[in-house]
Specification:
Elements lengths: L4 H12 L9 E5 L2 E4 H13 L6 H23 L6 H26 L4 H15 L2 E10 L2 H12 L4 H4 L14 E5 L6 H9 L10 E3 L2 E12 L5 H27 L4
Antiparallel strand pairs: 1-2, 3-4, 3-6, 5-6
Helix pairs in contact: 1-2, 1-4, 2-3, 5-9
Length: about 260
């Protein structure tokens, strides 16, 4: 179990600035100075929030790390590190980061995402994805005349897989242009519009222009899209909406701020 300093730093700041406690529930006492149990609990809470299970192993690792930090902190104080300008600058930044993080956490708690919000987002994404997905291949080239030449060769019986070797798409050129199964929303609009109009087994009769170049598209198959249920994706949607709400709040505050 490895607990790094970077993970602990912000959690510890909240309690490091507090007055020392010599109560019976101290985690340990190092050279006469107590490490309060509350400090360990703050770090444990952060680790649990990141998915770590609360265990004796985790608590023992955190205890050892906090003792090590206290030993080093005491030595740093002896050397006068905290009086340096560099330390004070870093301390100001750390305080500000902790202040902001705590404020945003409180804001998210005060503005919870409702079940209706989550359901609306689920319905929006589901509608955007559609009810079908497509198995498609493509050949991407720089010039329109190159795409037309490929279409002409296909008309003469040359294999799509072989012609795909000249595609400038590195992810599919060595796989016969295969893009696998995907819904239309996964592609840029000109591509998806052309793809959904094709008959199964057919390729585009004219080059399809997009921001990436000119495509020759072949539709191999179509099937019904099996979307995850609302319950399966609810945690991710909730987190996404919370993040969006926080970002919107931050943008509003910045817009109101007088910045010179």
């Amino acid at each position: 179990m490895k607990i790094t300093l970077s993970r602990l730093s912000l959690s510890l700041l909240a309690v490091l600035f507090a007055a020392p406690s010599f109560a019976a529930d101290n985690l340990a006492v190092v050279n006469g100075k107590a490490i309060p149990q509350s400090r360990a609990e703050a770090v444990i809470a952060e680790q649990k929030a990141q998915g770590a299970p609360d265990s004796e192993q985790l608590r023992a690792a955190i205890k050892e790390r906090l003792i090590g930090l206290e030993v080093l902190a005491q030595e740093a104080q002896k050397k006068g590190v905290e009086k340096s300008a560099a330390f004070q600058t870093k301390l100001d930044i750390a305080r500000q980061s902790l202040l902001v993080n705590t404020y945003l956490q409180d804001y998210a708690k005060a503005h919870p995402v409702s079940e209706a919000d989550i359901k609306a987002e689920y319905d929006r994404i589901k509608a955007q994805l559609g009810d079908k997905e497509y198995k498609v291949r493509h050949i991407l080239v720089e010039k329109e005349e190159d795409a037309k030449a490929i279409i002409e060769k296909l008309g003469k019986g040359e294999k799509f897989d072989d012609l795909a070797k000249q595609s400038k798409d590195p992810g599919s050129k060595d796989k016969g242009g295969d893009l696998g199964w995907a819904n239309p929303g996964s592609f840029v609009k000109p591509f998806s519009d052309a793809m959904t109009k094709l008959e199964k087994g057919k390729y585009s009769a004219t080059p399809v222009k997009s921001e990436f170049g000119y495509h020759v598209i072949k539709l191999e198959d179509v099937r019904a899209l099996k979307s995850p249920t609302l319950e399966e994706v609810k945690p991710q949607l909730k987190q996404r909406l919370e993040q969006q709400a926080v970002e919107k709040h931050v943008a509003e505050l910045r817009a109101k701020a007088q910045i010179k």
